Fold each of these.
Amino acid sequence: MEQGFKDPYNFKYFVGFLMALALPTLPASLTWLGVLAS
C-alpha cells in the first residue's frame, strides 16, 4: 500500500505496460468470445 502512495507514477506505468502487452491479444479474445457466445 505504501509503495502505491510513494510511487503512483510507477503504478501507472505498470498498468500501461500490462495494457500494451494485452492489446495484441484483444482481437483474438474478442473472436473467441464471439465464437463461444454464438
Amino acid sequence: MKNYGLTIRKIRLDKGYSQKEIYTEIITKSYAIEFEQGKHDISLFLFTQILDRLRIDIDEFFYIHNDYHLEEENDYINNFSHAANRHDIKSLEKMYQLLLHHVPPTTLTLVHQAELRLRIQSLTYFETYKNFEHWQGNPEDIQIIGHYLMNVQSWTLQEILLFSNNADMFNQEQQIFFFKQLLKSLPNYRAYDRAIPVYASLLTNILPTLFRMQEWAEISQGLDWLKQLSSEYTNSFFRIVFIYYSGLFAICQEDSIAGERKVLWALNTLKIIDQADIAVEFEAFFQTINDRANE
C-alpha cells in the first residue's frame, strides 16, 4: 500500500486528527511517520483500522487517492450505465474507440468491447424499429461475455452488474437460469447499500423476459423483491420501475384498468424526471404486452 500513506496524511490533517488519535495501538509512532511519508507498506487489516479511525470507507478513500476520480473499472461501469440508459450511442461509440487502443488488451477489456458493440447495435436497432422484440445480438460477442461469466466460479457485484447490463443479450432460457441462481444470493446482499441498485437493475432488466415467457411465479417474486429494494427514497427511480411492472402484471392478470393506470403514471413520471429514453423503451414494451393481452 505504498504511497497510500500520503493520502492518509492529507485526510488526517484535513479532518484535524493528530497521529496519536489515529495510530495508537495500531502501529508505532515512528512507523506511522514513515508510513505517511510513503516509505512503508501496511497490511489490509491495519489499513482498514486506520480508515475506521478516520471515519472514511475504503471506496471513498480510493476515490480521494485517485484525485477525486473513479478507478478505471468503476469509471467504465458508471459511464456505460449513464450512456446506455440515455440511449447515447455517440458516447458508447467513443468509449469503444478508446478501448480499442487499450494495449495490451486484457480479458476484461475484450469483455467490455463486446458489451459496447452489443449495446450500440441494440440501441441502433431500437432507433429504427422502436422496440427490441426481434433484435438479435452478435453471437460471438454474446459468447465472449457468457464465457467470462461462466468461468467465474463465484459472482460478486461486478459480475452481477455485467450480467444485469447484458441480460437481454442472452437467450431467454439462459436469462431465467442465471436469474434463478442469482436470486438465491439476494438475501445475503440486501443490507449492503451498494448492492441494492445492482440487484434492482438486474430485476429491471430481467422482468421483460419473464413476461415474454409468462413466468408468473417468478414475476411475482421479482416484483416483491423490487418493491423491497425500492422502499427507501434514495431508490425512488426503482420504485417507479416497480409500479410500471406491477401495472403490466395487473394487465396480464386481466385487471387492465388498474394496470394501465399504474403504467401510464410511471411513464409520465419518467418523462418528468428527464428519463425520456427509458420511458420510450418502456412504452414500447407496454404496447407489446397490451397487444398480447387483447389477443
Amino acid sequence: MIFIDSLKCTGCGQCTRVCPFTVLRLNQEGKAENTGKRCIACMHCAAVCPADAVTYDSRPAVAEKTQPLPEDCSTTVKQLIYQRRSYRRFLKKKVPGDILRAALDAAENAPSAKNEHPVRWIILESEEIRQCIMDWILEYCKENQVSMELISEYANGNNPVMGENAVIIIGICRKNSINPAQDTAIAMTTAELLLQAEGIGTCWGGYLTRFLNLIPECRMVLEIPEGYEVYGTLLAGYPDRQNYRYLPARKKAELKII
C-alpha cells in the first residue's frame, strides 16, 4: 500500500496529478494522502515526488535517480530498431548469464496491463532437453500431418524450430491475466532490443511457441505450472557468419489521421 510521509510531503500535488486512478489526494492540511482506492503500484507518485515522501508496503518505492538520456539518443535507438535482424544460426559460445539476466530485468520495466507484470521466464540451455523437445515436435507433426515442412527441413540439416546452437528464452504467463499475449510480446521485445544491442542475435520462435503449448511432454519437461501458457519464445546466441550489410527495403507505415 502507498504511504505518504506527511512530515516530508511539501504539498506540491505532483503525485496526485500523475496517479492514473486518483488513489492520492491533498487533504485539508494540503498534504498528500491515500484515499484507500485500489493501487496498481505503478509508482508514478514515488518517481515524481521531489521530497522522497512515498513508500510502498513499508519499503522504499524507488531505486535510483533518473539520468539524462545520452545526446542523440533517438538516433541510436532508431539505428538499433532498423538494424535488428532475425538470427537462426549461432556459434557454440555460451551467452553469459548476466547478459540474459540484465535483458530480462529490463523487460520488467516494460508496460503491462494494470501494471501486472505477469510474465515469467524459463531459460533453456540443456542440449539434451532441447533435443527431446525437438524429437517430440517432429513426432507430433508426423502423427498429426501438420507443419510437414519441418520434417523435410530438419532432414536437410536445417532447424526452423530451434535454430542452431541457440539458448531458448521462454516467456510464460498466467492465462487469466488481463493481456497475457500482449504483455509477453512487449516484455520480450524489450529484452530482445537490449540483447541485440549487446551483440546477441535473436529470433522469435513461432513454431516453438505453438508446439510447446500443444505437446504435454514439452510442458512437463519445462515444468510449466498449471494455468500458465507459453506466449513467446526467443532463440538467442552469438551469430555465426551472419553479417548483414544493408537495411532491407520496407514499405512506409500505413496510417489514417482522423
Amino acid sequence: MEWFDLGKKIKIFLTTLGIFFFLLCFGFLGAGLYFYHVAVVPGKKNFLKDKKVSKSSPLYPGDQWYKSAKKYHWTQMSTTDHLKLVANYLPADKPTKKTVIIAHGYMGNKELMAPYAYIFHRMGYNVLTPDSRGHGQSQGNYVGYGWPDRMDYIKWMRRVIEENGKSSKLIMFGVSMGGATTMMVSGEKSVPSQLKAYIEDCGYTSASDEINHEAKQLYHLSDFPRWPLVPILSGITHIRAGYSLYKASALKQVKKNHKPMLFIHGSKDNFVPTRMVYPVYNATEGPKKLLLVKNAPHAASYQTNPELYVKTIKSFLDRYFN
C-alpha cells in the first residue's frame, strides 16, 4: 500500500512538473512573439525619440536643402526575396565620380539622413540615400538590423557603378543601425573594388548584443529571463525573417575588413552604449581612426559638435579617399 501511495505521489509530482515546464515554455514563447513585434516588426516605437528637426538645430540647413535638392528616384529588387527597394540619388553640383552611400538608423528613412547627405554634398560628392528594407518606401515586413540589408547596399553600390562608370569611387556611411550595416558590409568579399572607405557612427557590435542591452535598459530584465528570451526571439526571427540575431554581427564582419574605416561614437550614448565601439575598432584590420564626441548621446555626435564632426570626416577622406 505504501509503495502504491509513493508511486502515486511521484506520478502527481512529475505531472505537475511537466505542466509547470509546459506553461513556462509557453510563456517564454509568448514573450518571444511579443518582443518580435516590438523589436523586429516595423512600426511606431514608443521608446524612440521624436525626430523632428528644429530651426535652431545644426541639422536644420541640411534638412531644408534635401527637400528642394535635385534628386533622382531609384528602385531595385533585393536579390533573394525580391523586395522592391527605393533610394534617392542626389548628384553633386559639379560632375564627379565620387559617391557616398548613406545607411539610416532603426525606424529611420532616407529623408532623415538629409543633414548627413548635406555634409558630403558640400564636399563635392554625389549622394545615394536608400530606404532599408521595412523602412520608408522600401518593401519588407521586418527590420533586418543590417544583416540582410548588407547585401542590398552592395547591390546599390553596383547600381552607382553602372550609372557612373567603372572609374567610380565610393564610400559608405551609416548612423546607428546604419553604422552596424556599414560594418557588416565591410566583411563581404562581394564588395566592389570601387568602394574605398567606410564611416560608421554609433553602430552596435551585433544585433543580439543590442537586443540584450535594450532588454536590460528598457525592460530592466536581469540575466534570467534575458536568457533564454533572446535566443527564443532569435529563433522566431530566423523562422519569420530569415536571419539570426546572433549571426548579424558587425564585430565578426569588421574582422575581415582591410579597408580604411572611421569610427564615431558619443561619450554619453546609452542606447548603443559607448563601450561597443572599442571591440569593433580593435577588430578591423584596415587603417582606422576613432572619434569620441564628448557629451554626445546616441546618434547626436554631429549635433553636439558639428565642427569637429565635419572636420574629422574631411580629414579622414582627404587621407584615405582622394
